[in-house]
């Protein structure tokens, strides 16, 4: 019901208030005039208040926002004779814009009108955070004066409260009514606290008891009692709940006339506080009254798995049908009937009717199981039960799913129980036996003749595990070996072998058994040494232990330091190559002697470390973290790391291991006091003293730091910003702590989803160094200032556009959030809210909320609305179909084609799967859906249909063409076929798609033309023309000496191409790839011609061939020939490596002929010369430097000359002759040859990058330098003048020295 207040009373004028001189007079007169008035004023810090009757009970909770909307705006100030009490004048109140509203003429119903005798409040808000509130205390609610005591007056109490709460309080009492009025001014939280203090000390105490359901107890208490504590603090009352009953009455399973068990809640305090607390508790109870929390406790626990079904499927189905939550505790039943320790039960939570339906269904299932299931008992060794359970009980669920039977395991015996339909028992038993079909090996039985078989078996197991022997067996046989746990070793030591095949498990078992047989008791011994000495025995990085192992051929197993065990196990293994006596007695004696030596050496090493000392320090726990440091860094630096001889332990410790050690030595252990403050240092005396000093130094520094960091500052900020200040998971506060090294405590912080009340603050305490504390406070307050600039905008966007605006995986909305620094929340879908969960902040389906700073919110809103307009414009769609055979051409390779269409048209295109057309034809079609604007859709559709139209015009023609013409039609690199397609108007780049020739190895004459019908026809005509033309061509030959081929070919084939193009012929020289493809049509003998290297084939028309031959003869007739004489001794130098000949041919276009018959067989051999002067192991000379130089000897065999015939154009022959003479002049200066032995690794340094180094050496020394290419040749040859080769040798030496 909506109620409004009419004729509001406004603040009085300055004249009427200034005439009142004394505050007491003002108060007295005000009481007389306003005895019947209950003023209701809007408070800035709160939007609601309560109206009380004469007994102080709450009549109605009044919300100013809903019940009095007219009060949501400021009231216009008008003149009135009303008086407002206070120490300031009314004029000051008017100037401070204090709104005061009188409701005495309001038209509230009588039942809601406030009674004149009331505890009411009038709040005046002066400015942000400061309020003035009035508290009226009727006579009936005041304590009698005698109860105050003679020495304590109301004034004393008010003064005490004023000092305690830091508020200003004025008090007056009406002469006629006796109502005592308090005007309280101060901060909101201080005013509320002052009100509570005054009521507690001056108001009559009231007591109320209410009945509430026992099931509501936990909701009244809240998590860790926070809800109850909040009510007591808010109302200033004391609330007592009865203690929880240990054996409370069980809930009944019938719901018709049954209610929850109730309990009495007692509330003590002033009347107003009691009523408020009562209302709070009743609100909690009413909120939970519609839901039911029911327990089913009468069903035997053995039936839980059968009721729940495999993987809880049956319970899930019931929960889904009824809409409630059901919890069936996991249960592995025991065959014994002693279940007194089991307190689990089936729990149902939900609406009462739904809970009743679900309970009936579970009861029906239970009754059916009770009558139709039987049990079967079977004995299986207890240690194998774990295989029946499986990881997380998976094997039990599989058994239940496949056989409808559950399995009950005993914790004390070997008996298992199968429960389920009797017809399923054989299948279930077979399933169980398959699970435990494993191979076991009892180590205890192998050496049963030992003095202590069980202890020896434990030692063997410890050795096998420590040496990873079992792991190797697992790898070799592809099995799994289950090692017993410590608690399973009290009676036997059994290894279980699991494998897919029984044979592999048996083989592995036999292998392990054979290994254990070779480990008799005689191979084991034990050394008892104090645990704190173990580290000294092991040595740094295990050096001491490793030395003993290698010396005696034993394995030493030292217990883990945390076990604090004094027992060290020594096992004889034997050294590699050691001769062991074959006689058993001698062998046992030898092993015993070795083990005894090892034991004595270990004990001696422990005695050598007897200088060990132990010191116990008492250091407060808070300083332990300073000693340890981040990840133990400080402690490691003090002790020396993990291998240090000294150990440090913190806090209380166990003495079990110490007792065992003392007992082994026949000593009595004195129980050390256990304390979390103790720090125990053990090790050599000198090290212990050093560590104690270092630790004491660290503690002193920590104490000094604590004093330095003791500066504390406390301040408040609005609770509504606490979630942002704290950050997700405390990230923001943690970052401040780490960066500034301060401690920050925030009391009363809120999660982002938890609402706060207006005016609620949180308290922040920062402790640390003064500068850092003040900086942390400044940063927090700066962030609060920024948050006050925050805004929230609610947009109305139809839900059908939400998916498009959010984008795939939230891509679009995340981009907006990052761009503008805002949070955008779309309404949750029905599936995202958990069943039974109440969505407090539920949005309407068409609401989108943007939160953030004002500018960011506005910008994000504008862009989001632009996106919405875009989506609305692009919400059009069209659907059509195309033949499926054209789909690859529409999509393109890797989707390139369809992507281009999307990008060009700005549309979304979805293509369906091929399906048969509905018109009865067998042709498959695909559907195409295009979304976007109408114009863009039409554009995209036209592009796709154009592709289809072009494809429909396509045709395929097969031509039969003799394979001998294929190569001609294709042309070099496909040039001719491209030219054919281009000449008829086709795309040159797609010629390979239009014309397809068969592969050469197929020897097929089919040529396929595919493409546009008109284009294909034109290509076909052109190809037929060319084939016909080729069939009429002839082939002839012309003889050209091989030495003159290059003259006709020209530089890079330029002259040959010019002849072919000019005369329209094809010329093939011997050795070319197409030479043998040209078949002669003349009467010349084919075989004779084919075997000649001078025959050049010409292919073309007869007249063209004749003209081309004449052109070639004319070119050859112009060839100039000139003879020069080359001294015999320089002949081989000029022709070495063929470099000069290549240069003459390529650069000068000149060929060289000479008579090599005149060169003798004993012609000078450079390699022989080198071998004659180079020794096998280097050069034999005085300084053994690997250097030998010889003078080039002109022997008689080198006398005479050799005629060289140079052929080519006259100008080029003259250039070539000049070039050869320059080389001869240079060679004449080469009088000496040096042989320099250089290791292979330096050859690359001599050559240098891109030959730069060797070129530099050649140019500076004027020598020819030859670096060997063979891997086994280390001799570098230097040819030049005597002075030049020395210069070259020195330069090479410099290169080698730099490379070393």
Automatic annotation (TrEMBL):
Entry-linked SUPFAM superfamilies: Eukaryotic type KH-domain (KH-domain type I)
Positions of region (Disordered): 1-20
Record GO cellular component, one term: cytoplasm
Source domain of life: Eukaryota
Subcellular location field: Cytoplasm
GO MF annotation, one: mRNA binding
Domain K Homology: 131-203, 204-286, 290-367, 372-437, 457-517, 521-596, 611-700, 709-785, 789-869, 874-949, 953-1028, 1032-1117, 1118-1225, 1230-1297
Keywords recorded for this protein, A-Z: Coiled coil, Cytoplasm, Repeat, RNA-binding
Coiled coil: 766-793, 1009-1036
InterPro entries noted in UniProt: KH_dom, KH_dom_type_1, KH_dom_type_1_sf, KH_Vigilin_N, SCP160-like_KH
CDD domains, per the entry: KH-I, KH-I_Vigilin_rpt4
PANTHER family (UniProt xref): DODECA-SATELLITE-BINDING PROTEIN 1, ISOFORM A, SCP160
Name used for this protein in its record: K Homology domain-containing protein
Organism: Diversispora epigaea
């Amino acid at each position: 019901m909506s109620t409004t207040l009419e004729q509001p009373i406004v603040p009085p004028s300055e004249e009427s208030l200034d005439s009142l001189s004394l505050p007491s007079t003002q108060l007295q007169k005000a009481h007389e005039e306003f005895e019947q008035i209950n003023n209701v004023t809007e408070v800035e810090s709160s939007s609601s208040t309560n109206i009380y009757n004469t007994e102080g009970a709450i009549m109605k909770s009044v919300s100013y926002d809903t019940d009095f909307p007219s009060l949501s705006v400021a009231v216009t100030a008008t003149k009135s004779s009303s008086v407002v009490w206070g120490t300031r004048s009314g004029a000051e109140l008017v100037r401070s814009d204090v709104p005061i509203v009188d409701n005495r003429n309001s038209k509230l119903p009588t039942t809601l009108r406030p009674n004149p005798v009331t505890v009411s409040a009038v709040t005046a808000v002066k400015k942000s955070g400061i309020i003035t509130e009035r508290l009226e205390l009727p006579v009936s609610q005041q304590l009698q004066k005698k109860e105050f005591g003679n020495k304590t007056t109301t004034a004393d109490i008010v003064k005490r409260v004023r000092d305690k709460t830091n508020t200003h309080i004025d008090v007056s009492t009406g002469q006629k009514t006796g109502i005592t009025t308090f005007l309280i001014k101060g901060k909101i939280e201080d005013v509320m606290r002052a009100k509570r203090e005054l009521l507690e000390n001056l108001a009559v105490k009231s007591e109320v008891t209410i009945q509430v359901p026992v099931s509501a107890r936990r909701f009244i208490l809240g998590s860790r009692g926070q809800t109850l504590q909040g009510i007591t603090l808010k109302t200033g009352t004391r609330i007592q709940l009865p203690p929880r009953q240990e054996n409370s009455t069980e809930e009944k399973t019938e719901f018709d006339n049954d209610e929850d068990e109730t309990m009495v809640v007692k509330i003590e305090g002033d009347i107003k506080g009691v009523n408020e607390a009562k209302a709070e508790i009743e609100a909690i109870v009413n909120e939970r009254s519609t839901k039911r929390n029911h327990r089913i406790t009468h069903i035997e626990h053995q039936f839980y798995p059968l009721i729940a079904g495999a993987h809880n499927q049956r319970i899930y189905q019931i929960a889904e049908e009824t809409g409630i939550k059901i919890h069936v505790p996991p249960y592995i039943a025991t065959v014994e009937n002693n279940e007194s320790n089991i307190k689990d039960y089936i729990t149902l939570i939900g609406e009462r009717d739904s809970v009743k339906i679900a309970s009936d269904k579970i009861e029906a299932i239970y009754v059916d199981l009770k009558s139709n299931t039987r049990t079967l008992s079977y004995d299986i060794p207890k240690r194998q039960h774990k295989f029946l359970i499986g990881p997380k009980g998976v094997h039990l669920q599989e058994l239940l799913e496949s056989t409808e039977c559950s399995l009950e395991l005993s914790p004390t015996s070997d008996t298992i129980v199968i429960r389920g339909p009797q017809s399923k028992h054989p299948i279930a038993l077979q399933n169980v036996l398959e699970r435990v079909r494993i191979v076991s090996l009892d180590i205890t039985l192998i050496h049963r003749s030992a003095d202590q078989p069980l202890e020896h078996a434990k030692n063997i197991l410890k050795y096998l595990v420590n040496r990873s022997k079992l792991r190797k067996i697992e790898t070799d046989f592809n099995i799994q070996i289950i090692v017993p746990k410590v608690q399973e070793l009290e009676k036997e030591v059994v290894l279980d072998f699991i494998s897919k095949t029984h044979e592999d498990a048996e083989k592995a078992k036999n292998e392990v058994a054979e290994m254990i047989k070779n480990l008799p008791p005689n191979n084991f011994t034990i050394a008892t040494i104090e645990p704190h000495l173990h580290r000294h025995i092991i040595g740094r990085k295990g050096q001491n232990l490793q030395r003993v192992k290698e010396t005696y051929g034993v394995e030493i197993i030292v217990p883990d330091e945390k076990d604090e065990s004094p027992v060290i196990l020594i096992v004889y293994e034997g050294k590699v190559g050691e001769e062991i006596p074959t006689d058993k007695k001698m062998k046992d004696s030898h092993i015993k002697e070795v083990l005894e030596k090892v034991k004595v050496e270990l004990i001696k090493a422990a005695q050598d470390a007897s200088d060990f000392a132990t010191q116990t320090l008492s250091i407060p726990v808070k300083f332990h973290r300073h000693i340890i440091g981040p990840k133990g860094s400080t402690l490691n630096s003090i002790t020396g790391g993990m291998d240090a001889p000294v150990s440090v332990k913190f806090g209380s410790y166990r003495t079990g291991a110490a007792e065992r050690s003392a007992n082994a030595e026949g000593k009595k252990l004195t129980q050390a006091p256990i304390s979390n403050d103790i720090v125990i240092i053990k090790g050599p005396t000198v090290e212990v003293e050093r560590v104690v000093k270092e630790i004491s130094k660290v503690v002193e520094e920590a104490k000094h730091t604590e004093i330095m960091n003791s500066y504390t500052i406390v301040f408040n900020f609005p609770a509504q910003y606490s979630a942002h200040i704290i950050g997700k998971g405390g990230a923001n506060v943690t970052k401040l702590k780490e960066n500034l090294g301060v401690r920050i405590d925030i009391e009363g912080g809120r999660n982002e989803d938890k609402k706060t009340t207006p005016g609620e603050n949180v308290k922040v305490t920062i402790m640390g160094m003064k500068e850092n504390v003040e900086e942390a406070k400044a940063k927090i307050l700066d962030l609060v200032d920024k948050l006050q600039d925050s805004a929230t905008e609610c947009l109305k966007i139809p839900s059908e556009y939400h998916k498009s605006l959010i984008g795939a995986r939230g891509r679009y909305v995340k981009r907006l959030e990052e761009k503008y620094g805002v949070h955008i929340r779309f309404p949750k879908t029905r599936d995202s809210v958990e069943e039974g969960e109440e969505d407090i902040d539920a949005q309407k389906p068409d609401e989108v909320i943007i939160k953030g700073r004002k500018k960011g919110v506005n910008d994000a809103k504008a862009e989001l609305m632009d996106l919405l307009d875009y989506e609305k414009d692009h919400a059009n769609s069209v659907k059509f179909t195309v033949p499926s055979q054209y789909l690859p051409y529409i999509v393109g390779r890797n989707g390139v084609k369809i992507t281009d269409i999307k990008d060009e048209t700005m549309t979304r295109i979805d293509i369906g799967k091929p399906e048969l057309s509905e018109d009865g034809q067998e042709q498959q079609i695909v559907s195409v859906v295009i979304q976007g604007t109408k114009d863009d859709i039409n554009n995209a559709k036209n592009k796709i249909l154009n592709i289809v139209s072009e494809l429909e015009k396509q045709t395929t023609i097969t031509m039969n063409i003799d394979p001998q013409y294929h190569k001609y039609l294709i042309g070099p690199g496909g040039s001719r076929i491209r030219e054919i397609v281009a000449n008829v108007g086709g795309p040159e780049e797609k010629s390979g798609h239009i014309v397809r020739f068969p592969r050469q190895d197929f020897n097929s004459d089919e040529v396929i033309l595919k493409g546009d019908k008109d284009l294909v026809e034109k290509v076909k005509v052109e190809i037929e023309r060319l084939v016909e033309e080729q069939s009429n061509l002839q082939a002839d030959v012309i003889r050209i000496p091989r030495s003159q081929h290059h003259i006709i070919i020209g530089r890079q084939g330029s002259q040959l191409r010019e002849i072919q193009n000019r005369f329209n012929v094809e010329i093939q020289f011997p050795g070319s790839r197409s030479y043998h493809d040209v078949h002669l049509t003349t009467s010349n003998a084919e075989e004779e011609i084919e075997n000649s290297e001078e025959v050049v084939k010409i292919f073309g028309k007869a007249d063209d061939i004749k003209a081309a031959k004449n052109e070639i003869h004319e070119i050859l007739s112009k060839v100039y020939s000139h003879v020069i004489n080359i001294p015999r001794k320089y002949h081989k130098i000029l022709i070495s490596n063929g470099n000069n000949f290549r240069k003459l041919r390529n650069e000068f276009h000149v060929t060289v002929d000479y008579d090599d018959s005149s060169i003798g067989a004993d012609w000078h051999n450079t390699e022989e010369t080198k071998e004659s002067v180079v020794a096998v192991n280097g050069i034999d000379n005085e300084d053994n430097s690997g250097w030998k130089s010889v003078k080039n000897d002109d022997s008689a065999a080198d006398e005479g000359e050799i005629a060289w015939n140079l052929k080519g154009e006259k100008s080029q022959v003259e250039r070539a002759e000049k070039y050869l003479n320059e080389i001869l002049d240079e060679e004449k200066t080469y009088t000496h040859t040096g042989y320099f032995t250089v290791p292979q690794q330096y050859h690359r340094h001599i050559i240098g990058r891109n030959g730069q180094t060797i070129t530099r050496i050649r140019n500076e020394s004027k020598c020819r330098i030859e670096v060997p290419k063979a891997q086994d040749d280390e001799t570098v040859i230097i040819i030049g003048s005597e002075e030049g080769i020395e210069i070259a040798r020195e330069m090479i030496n410099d290169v080698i020295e730099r490379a070393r």
